[in-house]
Amino acid sequence: MISAIASGQGKTTVTAALARYFTQQGKRVRVFKTGADFIDPMMLQQACGSRVFSLDLWLLGLPACRAMLKQAAQESDLVLIEGVMGLYDGTPSSADLANAFGVPVLAVIDASSMAQTVGAVALGLRDFGPVQLAGVVANRIASDGHLSMIESALRDIPVLASLRRQEQALPERHLGLVLPDEVGGVDQILNRMADSLTVDMAAWQVIPRMQLLDEDAPIADVPQMLAGKRIAIARDASFAFIYPANLLALEQMGAQLDYFSPLADQAIPANADALYLPGGYPELHAATLSQAHCWLSSLNAFQQAGKVIYAECGGMISLAESLVDLEGKQWPMAGLIPGQIRMQKRLAALGMQSWDTQHGELRGHTFHYSTFDCPLSASAHTIKQKTQENGEAIYQIGQLRATYFHAYFPSNYAATAALFSVAEI
């Protein structure tokens, strides 16, 4: 488990550097991401070369997490789990996940503004829970002397690895890192990060191994509730926020997935039974989307044919009447849903939520920097995990459903199947 005292310590950088470092050593590396995240997993996938799935006790439940860990351990030499926020933040926290399976923790500590105090931070992280702290990854080290001071203060906690200050870091945007496809020379950046990483292999070799019992349940078979369905999925820089597990879930339920790019003005694939518009950055591509005539005409025809449309967050933004960007400029959107989206610099909503459907609870999260002034009454609301209060509105017009909520499909296959069928959810 790669964790830290807080966000901003360099968890993703260190996890990506470790993944690339050990991949270059010929190891088979699998990486998981704790919590709800789209962008970090894309960068981690770039670093390790395999899909990065969420591993979260609330989203998936303990049995599913155990089965995924066991499968990953059987197929790889090293499993890394990037935590979320600080080690003990959230319910459940990264520490809860680590302790549930006996996963040793590596504490990433930004040492750029301290030296011996790293020892106090590490001891606090270890003993507060406690957790099985295997060691520290000292990030943003200035010199060998700086590292020596840190090592002397850590007492019985080893420095498993250290990473020098990076001249070129992974670029960020308001919802996290920039998408890997938008970063020129991303592999060169990852290689430089791996080259800057110093790993104490002797200390690494004695990290306690996680024990998974042979009788632990395997991943259950997924019912074929979408067999024969063709689902069109928008996927490009404007519609990029897709859990890999969501795509896998649709495939496991028997759906055929057809991808297309609204940004490239591609029409919805012919013969599609349903349309999935995931989140992303439509606000960054509003000018292009507003002029994508093939895409817009196919979308209107799709709705008029009474076919199923499911749009979440950025997908919903693209369906509104208009979008006002941060500069105050208004852009026409598809207009399938009345109302105006307004971007803002301040975070509008963040957190785990669930949708209480007639098929049970469909879990997921919300994270957006915009508000929607919509005259429609919501057909339902999600429920906030922490407070059990109403969360995001869910709008329905015929067979179109739209919401800021990002659903995690494997949390409820029956509810997901209903989302993409002409059925009540």
Structural class: alpha/beta
Q: Please tell me how large the radius of gyration is.
A: 22 Å
Tell me the helix content: 25-40%
Tally of helical segments: 14
CATH architectural group of the largest domain: 3-Layer(aba) Sandwich
CATH superfamily of the largest domain: P-loop containing nucleotide triphosphate hydrolases
Q: CATH fold name of the largest domain, please?
A: Rossmann fold
Look at the structure and give the mean pLDDT: 92
Pathway: Cofactor biosynthesis; adenosylcobalamin biosynthesis
Domain CobB/CobQ-like glutamine amidotransferase: 230-411
Cofactor: Mg(2+)
InterPro entries: CbiA/CobB_synth, Class_I_gatase-like, CobQ/CobB/MinD/ParA_Nub-bd_dom, GATase_3, P-loop_NTPase
Report what the structure shows:
With 425 residues, this protein is an alpha/beta fold. It folds into 2 domains: 2-205, P-loop containing nucleotide triphosphate hydrolases (Rossmann fold, 3-Layer(aba) Sandwich), CATH 3.40.50; 230-419, Class I glutamine amidotransferase (GATase) domain (Rossmann fold). Helix content is 30%, strand content 28%. The strands form 5 sheets. A 10-stranded mixed beta sheet has the order 12-11-13-14-23-22-21-18-19-24. The chain has a 5-stranded mixed beta sheet with strand order 1-5-6-7-10, sandwiched between helices. α6 links the parallel β5 and β6 (133-141). The protein starts with a strand and ends in a 6-residue tail after the last helix. InterPro entries: CbiA/CobB_synth (IPR004484), Class_I_gatase-like (IPR029062), CobQ/CobB/MinD/ParA_Nub-bd_dom (IPR002586), GATase_3 (IPR011698), P-loop_NTPase (IPR027417). Keywords: ATP-binding, Cobalamin biosynthesis, Glutamine amidotransferase, Ligase, Magnesium, Nucleotide-binding. Pathway: Cofactor biosynthesis; adenosylcobalamin biosynthesis. Residues 230-411 form the CobB/CobQ-like glutamine amidotransferase domain.
